[in-house]
Structures are given as structure tokens and as C-alpha cells.
Amino acid sequence: MSNTLLVSTTGKTATLGALAAITETPGETEIRRENLQRLVAVTARFEGVDLGSGMPAVQKAVNGLHLPSSIRVEYGGQYQEQQRSFRELLKVLFLALLLLFAVLLFEFRTFSAPTAFLLLRFSPHSVVRRALNHSHHLQRSLPYGHDHGHRVVAKKRHPPP
Q1: Long-range contacts, stretch 91-97, CB < 8 angstroms, 24+ apart
Q2: Partners of 13 in the beta sheet?
Q3: pTM greater than 0.85 (yes/no)
Q4: C-alpha distances in angstroms, 148 versus 7, 11, 108, 117?
Q5: Distance CA 141, CA 28 (A)
Q6: How far apart are the first and last CA of the chain?
Q7: Regions in the chain scoring below 50 on pLDDT
Q8: CA–CA distance from 58 to each of 43, 61, 64, 75 (Å)?
């Protein structure tokens, strides 16, 4: 292994033994197990690439190995923590939307207003928003409308002649 030839980016060559001291150590005498399965941890670090773009490359390389079905691959470390954080953030977002819907439902006392509000607010390219933006029946400004309890009915404004 010390005679392995390395080529630099400038084209110069050197052997691995000339660049580093290589020492051989005996393998592990202990077999690690988790849930009665043998555990082999393979660790690595990314250099010059972020976690979001590095992990798909690693997963593609591992999938290209065509490992037997008896070998299970789990990705841990920072990637696992990031995935867990994203799942928890999605749960929080869903619960916040549910709470917002409940508050709007309590405020308007009907399902149509909170549903329309959430659709308009959180889907900018939805059919509902496009239909309301192009509608000539409702106006956005409320000074020309009337407040009937919790419902606001807007009148169409006519430009001055």
C-alpha cells in the first residue's frame, strides 16, 4: 500500500509511503451488535459540499453497489438529525394551520370562510385565488363595503366618469 502512486493536480507523482507514515493495526476483536444484528459504522465528512447536495450523491453511490438484501443501510449523524428536524417542523406547521383553522372557524362560525382564507393564503397559484383576483364582483378595499356581523360584503367600486 505504501507504493500506491498518487498524482497531484499539477501532474507531479509521489507514492503514498513518501507522503505519509503508514502503520498497520490489527482489526477489531469485538463485534458490535444492535438489536441482535451486526453493526458496522462507516463514517465520512463532506468537504466543499453541503449536506443537502452531498447526501443524494452518497445515496446514489450506495444504491449503485447493489448490496444484498441481508445488508441494511441507515444514514445517521447530521443527516438523520436534519431529517428528524424537518419532520418535526412539518408537524408544527400542520398543527399551526389546524389551530389557525380552528380560530377562524370559531370567529366566522362557518367552514367556508376559514377554508377560503387558508386556500387563498397558502396556495398562491390556486384556482380559487386566480378566480377571485379576476372577479369584478368583489373589491379588496372595505371602505365601500358593509360589515354584517362577521361577514364583510364588498360593493363594486365604479371609477368616476
Answers
A1: 97/122
A2: 7
A3: no
A4: 80, 81, 11, 18
A5: 74
A6: 91
A7: 127-129, 134-156
A8: 12, 5, 10, 10
